[in-house]
Amino acid sequence: MAGAPAPQPAPMPDDVVRLQGRGVVYRNGQRLGETGYDIMIVPPQHSRPTLEPGTPPSDRPDITGYLTDRFYIGEDVQNGGALTLVLEDGRRFDFTVLVPDTNEIIAVSPLYQ
To answer: Where in the sequence is the domain holding 75, given as residue range(s)?
Structure first.
């Protein structure tokens, strides 16, 4: 029995990119719902250096932003589980919620197809 193909990394943007649209949120492959998003992708070459000693530079972009619809994901936040946001163009990334009241999110994986 063949499994699903492994996710492929999406091309990394050369410059800072802002993406707005509608996407679908999943937890462990189960659809939780649709939401709007407003995210920024900052490639590693545009990131500020980390001031903490011993922290290596990142080789993947920072992806941060907001889920723009009222979207209750409190249970998922409390359980500490990562969620997946699938963008309009099919790219996706795993994220966690930084601020549940505002649905501010941060990626915990790079973009993949």
So the answer is: 20-49+56-107
